[in-house]
Write a structure and sequence with these properties.
Rossmann fold
Length: 260
C-alpha cells in the first residue's frame, strides 16, 4: 500500500499575508522536483489558489507546465457536510500523490480548523507588522513583552489536541514565515524579529524568512506562473530581481526540509 502523503497546510487567520502565493510556489517547487502533488483549497469563497490553478491551465496551451491535482471545498451552511467532503478529497489525494498542499481561509472557520489538524507541516506567512503578530501573541505596547499566546496560536494548540484524539502521535512541524519583508532595515523589523524569536521558543514554531514584497508576484498570478516558471518561454525575461526572488524561495524550501 502506498504510504500516506505528506500534508502541508498554509494557515493564518488574517488575510493578505501571501498564503496562496506561497502555496502555489510550494506546489510548483515540489512538482519540479518530480513529486506528485495534490492541492486543496479550503478558502474556496475567495478561491485565490483555485483561480491561480485555473489561470495556469488556461495559459498552458502546449502542456509545458507541471500541474497539481486540484480540488476545492467551498464552505457551506452545513459544517458536517463540509468536513465530510474535506476528508473525502484528502483521502483521495493522499492515496494518489506524494504531497498534498492545503490553502486555508484567513479566518477562524471549522473547515480551517479541521484542515489544520491534518498538517504534517504547518506554514504560517506573517507580514512584518505588529497587527499580524497580534494573532500569534498579545504584546504589551509599552514594554513589548509577550503577555500570552494569541488567538491563532491557541487554535493551533487545539488542532494539535484534535490530532492526538485521532491517535496521531506525530507532532505538527510549524514554520512561521516573515513574509513580504521590506528590503530596508527598520526598528519595527528588528523588534519583530526579537519578539518572534522569543515566541518561537515559547509556543513551538520555527521562524524563517519568507518572500520579499515584489511586483512580479502580482504579474505572475494572472498567468498562473511562479518564479520557477520564469524564462524565455514564459514571456517574462529573467532580471536580477527575479534571480534574488528565486534564491529566497530556494532558501525557504531548504529551511522547511522539502528539497530532494
Amino acid at each position: 500500500m502506498k504510504p500516506a502523503a505528506r500534508v502541508i497546510v498554509l494557515g493564518n487567520e488574517k488575510g493578505g499575508t501571501g498564503k496562496s502565493t506561497v502555496a502555489m510556489h510550494l506546489v510548483v517547487a515540489l512538482l519540479r522536483q518530480g513529486k506528485s502533488v495534490g492541492s486543496l483549497d479550503l478558502d474556496a469563497r475567495q478561491a485565490t489558489l483555485t483561480r491561480y490553478v485555473e489561470y495556469r491551465r488556461q495559459h498552458d496551451s502546449d502542456g509545458a507546465l507541471p500541474h497539481s491535482d486540484h480540488r476545492a471545498v467551498p464552505p457551506s451552511a452545513d459544517s458536517e457536510q463540509d468536513a465530510a467532503l474535506l476528508r473525502q478529497h484528502l483521502t483521495d489525494l493522499s492515496e494518489r500523490h506524494d504531497v498534498v498542499v492545503i490553502d486555508t481561509p484567513g479566518s477562524d472557520h471549522p473547515l480551517s480548523r479541521l484542515g489544520h489538524s491534518y498538517a504534517d507541516i504547518l506554514v504560517t506567512p506573517l507580514n512584518d507588522s505588529f497587527i499580524d503578530l497580534d494573532l500569534l501573541a498579545a504584546i504589551d505596547g509599552d514594554s513589548l513583552k509577550i503577555l500570552r499566546p494569541g488567538r491563532y496560536s491557541e487554535m493551533v494548540w487545539e488542532t494539535r489536541k484534535t490530532r492526538a484524539m485521532r491517535g496521531e502521535t506525530k507532532a505538527i512541524d510549524w514554520f512561521v514565515l516573515r513574509n513580504r519583508l521590506s528590503t530596508l532595515d527598520a526598528r519595527n523589523k528588528r523588534e519583530m524579529e526579537k519578539l518572534l524569536d522569543a515566541l518561537a521558543k515559547r509556543i513551538g514554531f520555527r521562524m524563517i524568512d519568507g518572500l520579499n514584497e515584489r511586483v512580479i508576484y502580482r504579474e505572475l498570478f494572472l498567468r498562473g506562473l511562479t518564479l520557477l516558471d520564469v524564462g524565455e518561454a514564459s514571456g517574462f525575461a529573467m532580471s536580477l530581481s527575479h534571480v534574488a526572488a528565486r534564491q529566497e524561495l530556494r532558501l525557504l524550501i531548504e529551511a522547511m526540509g522539502l528539497m530532494n
